[in-house]
Amino acid sequence: YALYPILKIETGLVSEKINGKNAYHYKAILNKDNARLLVSKLLKLEAETLLTVSSTDQLEQEILTSIDAVDEASAEIWIGKDDYLPYKITTTITIDTAKIKSNTVKSTGKITMNLSILTSKFNEKFIIIAPTESTPIEELVAEIFSALMPPMSQD
Length: 155
Description:
This protein is α+β, with helices and mostly antiparallel strands. The protein has helices at 32-49, 53-69, 137-148, and strands at 7-10, 16-18, 21-30, 70-80, 86-96, 110-118. Strands 1, 2, 3, 4, 5 and 6 form a six-stranded antiparallel sheet that branches. The radius of gyration is 19 Å and the shape is globular.
């Protein structure tokens, strides 16, 4: 990661109050060029130990295509000045669907996903009750990735 930092950290953002607490504010932005380099290097290391060269090349191309489809990926965090706890985290990811290569689906447009998390009541006990009707996170993630990733060809 030190050779290919995939996140650019922006400092010097204006401090804010979150949930009544003074907080430092930082932003991280995806460096797509370094993400591509890091993926390539990691897959080459993996190929030497586990995968065949052809499957590594195919996997690398599919991952790099997915990285290329990302128009923006950023995250912000607000950390308490007194206790260094994370009081707010936001992420934004925008994907250009026209850059996703697929043999079955042609798409134009963009998909933007936003997530915002506010935290409080640190170190307090709580009970999590699962909803009676829900979809497991694994199924949700699989649906998202199957819609965004091109199908793997069978060689």
